[in-house]
Fold this sequence. Notes:
By secondary structure, the protein is an alpha/beta fold. The chain contains 14 helices and nine strands. Helix content is 52%, strand content 14%. Helix 1 (15-24) runs parallel beside helix 7 (127-133), helix 9 packs across helix 12 and helix 12 (237-253) runs antiparallel to helix 13. The N and C termini lie far apart (60 Å).
Amino acid sequence: MDINNVSFIGLGVMGYPMAGHLQNSGLKTTVFNRTEEKAKQWTRQYGGDFKLTPKDASQGSQVVFMCVGNDDDVRSVVYGADGILAGLNAGAILVDHTTTSATLSVELARACAEKNIHFIDAPVSGGQAGAENGCLTIMCGGDKAIYNQILPVMKNYGKQATLMGENGQGQRCKMVNQICIAGILQGLSEAILLAKEASLDISQVVDVLKHGAAGSWQMENRAETMAQEKFDFGFAIDWMRKDLGICLNEAKLHSLALPLTESVDTRYQSLQEKGLGRMDTSVLIESYKCEK
């Protein structure tokens, strides 16, 4: 299928630039956002078109991408008389870039199949900077043939995309991603506190360690700002707690205990209670300072 007509539902910090990459690539792109002014702003910046309902935005589109907040947000734009499914024709493809439960992905795949619509769950990693620079990592679940059809389109904002298996497996891979990030940030928090107490130069520490086994994106991009107590940017802990909740719920389905994930989630909860919910996830270090 030659794809030239797409839609994007949800123009948050991720969806806004992702939809922009689609329009800039030459695809006819129609958008919907719950805040109408944001949609108007997007069309002024990129061109394209906007509609007042997900249904209207989806009509005539070969592929609809969505990136909203959580499971309930996804359901609110997919179902109902004004939802995406009401606007799509048989044979169209729905791609969900939202980080959700795997259970929802399976549910959506079944709902789409009833209307002869294809579904791919495709959560992303890379944050706002990754979306803006078109270098996201995309973890997909669904049919291989459908994945191969949309892969060239997703490459407009993704540097890496992989089909992990059936519907739901993309979301499960994203859960693993978030658990890894939580563990790295926990280690960085403790390491930076020790480094500062030992009068080490954090910039020099990062420059040395990033080339070895301890190197990571979080170290290179967050260690110095953590040491400087700068957290007013990036991926908010409100969002991370939502994601970690999904991880812990999935773990229960498999009778698994995730003590590190539970510990980090509890620390983030305490930071939320202090009014820091919109701070970057690297603010985790502040929870350790309270224990000194």
